[in-house]
Design goal:
The chain has about 400 residues and is of the alpha+beta class. The protein is built from nine helices and 17 strands. The strands form two sheets. Strands 1, 3, 4, 5, 6, 7, 8, 9, 10, 11, 14, 15, 16 and 17 form a 14-stranded mixed beta sheet that branches. The protein binds 2-oxopentadecyl-CoA (NHW) and the ligand CCOC(=O)c1cnc2ccc(OC)cc2c1SCCC#N. 2-oxopentadecyl-CoA (NHW) binds next to strand 5, helix 3 and strand 6.
């Protein structure tokens, strides 16, 4: 496959895979700030750039609606992600965020938002180097404007604005294969509401299985089984940060979270992110942690249901409670909160619990990418400690 745009970019190129003479690290050096293009890239004349102020409810609603109607669908067009407004406000405004990295395109005539791309700052460790990066997400072009080479312009513009903040690397994921994945992960799904998943056509009744037998197969206890399992609170931030930093050090690529990051990304936020920890009764020590984020999807073309309530495994740490038991407690609280499905990637140590907790493999893959940073050998998913939203 030829990639007319991606072959011009400082990313690992397919032709370079396996060439171990190429050093690990930045592909291109930083440009002096005076040499970074000062003005935005050109758009087709009917369109104009706009910066989306995510503090404005009106603008947040415009971004929400664009994504609700035009963002990612699965291959069978059963679902389309339906990130909530609260979720977008949270995902796009972490500590140190740049409003200028929330980039929209409007049609000049109607002023309608027709495209969007975003970046947020992140410190990401790649082996022994902590690198300041932009995490790029929510790239979306309206369905009516597809295949007009708008995406490369959006990508070049966000790259330019990231460069203006003296940041030269990025991390992103995609369901499509581009030059060149640092690893490729598998989605796994654990039914919590098997009847609904069968009714919408995602799952099928197993051979020699009745509906009631299937419901029983996925049944979960009413409450978590681990003593000391409780919701995370603000006072837990220092302990959770210590626990997480220590645990994440085993992975080749992982976020370098400090307490400010943990407070933003991991404190429970209604309908956005849930997090729990295990506190030892006697020592009061925080020994384990689990978290998942809320990402509903529109169910396309179904008369009975309009929304799938999905939980996505986020960051989990097990030091005393077996990961299997910890994640089963996560399933139990997710079911209690009326989620229909609990999704997880085969990253970190997730493979150790997926099959036993009755996750089934999805048919979608998620490719991880770094921009302007070469790694010598692709990673196994179990070496990856980064979950992007
Ligand atoms: C130092 C800082 C650096 C910051 C920047 C870092 C890089 C960030 C990169 C972005 C990370 C985003 C991460 C993220 O948001 C998470 S992945 C989700 C992406 N969004 C969707 O799938 C929503 C539905 N689809 C669309 O809106 C459109 O199809 C999009 C906009 C996807 C493409 O619009 P289109 O109308 O269908 O296509 P053209 O405009 O005609 O352009 C065709 C060119 O675009 C390349 N393409 C297609 N899909 C891509 C994708 N998902 N990433 C990167 N490139 C993608 C394609 O390979 C081709 O280039 P090539 O000819 O070279 O092959
Ligand atoms: C029931 C299991 O599938 C999903 O939860 C789901 C929901 N919505 C989507 C929207 C777009 C989409 O595009 C790839 C996939 C889904 C998926 S499967 C992959 C995500 C996970 N886990």
């Amino acid at each position: 496959k030829i990639h007319k745009f991606w072959e011009t970019q400082p990313v690992g190129q397919f032709k370079d895979v396996g060439d171990s003479s190429l050093a690990e690290g930045p592909i291109e050096p930083p440009t002096p700030l005076s040499e970074v293009k000062q003005e935005p890239y050109n758009l087709p004349s009917a369109y104009e750039w706009t910066t989306c102020d995510m503090d404005s409810e009106e603008t947040c609603l415009e971004v929400y609606n664009l994504l609700k109607n035009n963002y990612v669908e699965d291959d069978e067009n059963l679902f389309r992600f339906n990130y909530s407004r609260e979720f977008l406000g949270w995902a796009l405004r972490p500590p140190g965020y740049f409003a200028s990295w929330h980039i929209g395109v409007r049609a000049k005539a109607s002023k309608k938002l027709v495209a969007f791309i975003s970046g947020v700052p992140a410190r990401i460790r790649v082996r022994e180097h902590v690198v300041k990066m932009a995490e790029i997400n929510f790239l979306c072009v309206h369905k009516k404007l597809r295949s007009k080479r708008l995406a490369p312009v959006m990508i070049k513009e966000v790259t330019r604005r990231v460069h203006l903040e003296n940041i030269w690397q990025a991390a992103y994921t995609a369901g499509v294969v581009l030059p060149t994945p640092i690893t490729t992960c598998q989605y796994w799904h654990r039914s919590l509401n098997p009847k609904k998943l069968i009714d919408v056509g995602f799952s099928r009744l197993g051979a020699r299985m009745t509906m009631s037998r299937t419901i029983k197969l996925y049944k979960l206890p009413d409450s978590p089984v681990t003593p000391g399992f409780r919701k995370m609170e603000l006072r837990d931030v220092p302990a959770v940060t210590r626990l997480l930093r220590n645990y994440m050090s085993q992975f080749s690529v992982a976020p370098d979270f400090d307490e400010t990051d943990v407070e933003h990304w991991l404190l429970p936020k209604e309908s956005v992110v849930d997090s729990f920890l295990v506190e030892s009764q006697y020592t009061r020590e925080v020994t384990d942690f689990c978290s998942f984020y809320t990402l509903p999807s529109s169910i396309l073309g179904n008369q009975t249901y309009s929304t799938l309530k999905a939980a996505y495994s986020y960051y989990n740490v097990s030091t005393k409670t077996p990961l299997l038991q910890l994640m089963n407690d996560a399933l139990i609280v997710a079911k209690k909160k009326d989620f229909d499905v609990f999704n997880a990637l085969d990253v970190m140590e997730n493979e150790s619990f997926l099959k036993e907790l009755k996750f089934g493999p999805g048919d979608g893959q998620l490719h991880y990418y770094l921009y302007n940073y070469r790694i010598r050998h692709a990673l196994k998913p179990s070496e990856l400690g980064l979950v992007l939203l």
